[in-house]
Design goal:
Helices cover 44% and strands 10% of the residues. By secondary structure, the chain is of the alpha/beta class. Helix 1 packs across helix 2, helix 2 packs antiparallel against helix 5 and helix 4 runs antiparallel to helix 5.
Length: 317
Amino acid sequence: MQGRPDHWSRFEAARAESRAESPLHKPSTCQNGSLIESLHPEASAARARFVLFDFDGSLSLIRTGWMQVMVPMMVDALAELKTGEQEEELRRVVEEFVWRLTGEETIYQMIALAAEVRRRGGTPLDPLLYKQRYLKLLWQVIRSRVEELRRGHCSPDRYLVPGARPLLEKLKERGLSMYLASGTDEAFLKEEAGLLDITRYFDGGVYGALDDYKSFSKRILVQRILALPCVVGDQLLGFGDGYVEIEEVERVGGITVGVATNEPECLVVDEWKRQRLIGVGADYIIPNYLHHEALIETLFRPADDGKTSSVPPPFQP
């Protein structure tokens, strides 16, 4: 993006420093050498009937770099108030609420920005205007990727987290009903999921942010799944790299896999994401899906009670 590389570099340097300050928890390695960190080894998805996936950073790499767009934009908005706070202080404030709301509809992060402007004595813009500003800046970053996919100039797998497609295939083979949910606007989500050729896996539906942002959320979707006949929490398996989807699935007793992708390569665990995913209760942490067979084996080992369940029809909202 033009005119901001120095600001982005400072943002990345500060973020790397905050990662380095995090206490390390040595990842565990399963017997065949794949990196799957088990925070709660007793957690089993053997009874799972439904799977909820987050999109950006959990499956899709199209929007890699979104945080490096959003955070500097918000820091600039707060710095314009000239409160005397240092850029580093403002960055910490912004990072905290951006991460906490990651997975929610984007508008909630903009509402939080407006609240911070107001708290400092300023007059904020309408959150929708902040969102439009952010999407315009983000488009400058991701446009070439979207156009490359639209024109068929690359394989869809180029912009998928490594190993994602084989994992999706394995989960479908098990007869699980799958849902895709994101804080990205639904129109963009559906186009990008289509460009990546993954819509076909999600018989439960593809759900994104709506203009009436209070009418849909990941929490609402989780509650709709649980409202289906004879469904209980441990029949839900969730994958995501953000706070919200892990917290919502964990809250109802589901099994959670924190996808701590270090984008765009996704070959090692992102320690910054990892610490925050652990903090909201992730049962397992992975950097990608390359060891999908070992992951399936780990997740679906027989439950202690030996219970099984039949697969229900896909949810229809």
